[in-house]
Amino acid sequence: MNQGIINVAVIEEWISDNLSAKAVESSLISKGYDSDLVKQYVIEFKRLKRAKNYSFGLMLLTFCVQAGIIACFVALHKS
Predict the structure, then answer these.
(1) 33: which strand partners?
(2) What is the count of structural domains for the chain?
(3) Do the domain assignments include residue 2?
(4) If you write DSSP's letter for every residue of the chain in order, what string do you get?
(5) What is the distance between the alpha carbons of residues 3 and 36, in angstroms, rounded to a whole number?
(6) Which of 5, 51, 65, 73 places its Cα 20 to 30 Å from the Cα of 32?
């Protein structure tokens, strides 16, 4: 029924609400979206969720590397 382009803002809201892909799919089906659009939404939801997790992991890795380098310099300076 509902046709149109994918609304990224809605997907980001689902991600912040920590919904699962199955919950997103069920919600869209109950609102009357056709199956092709539901599949596109779920694919985009998974892609954006994976990208967010990747960004957080990369940020955490960068922080840990910098902390390790600082600890190394402090240890070398004290010896």
Answers:
(1) 2
(2) 1
(3) no
(4) -B-----HHHHHHHHHTT--HHHHHHHHHHTTB-HHHHHHHHHHHHHHHHHHHHHHHHHHHHHHHHHHHHHHHHHHHH-
(5) 10
(6) 51
Write out the two tokens for 15: 């991600």
pTM listed for this prediction: 0.70
What is the identity of the amino acid at 37? L
Does residue 1 carry a pLDDT above 70?
Answer: no
Residue 3 lies in a domain: no
Segment 9-66, tens digit of pLDDT = 999 999 999 999 999 999 999 999 999 999 999 999 999 999 988 888 999 999 999 9
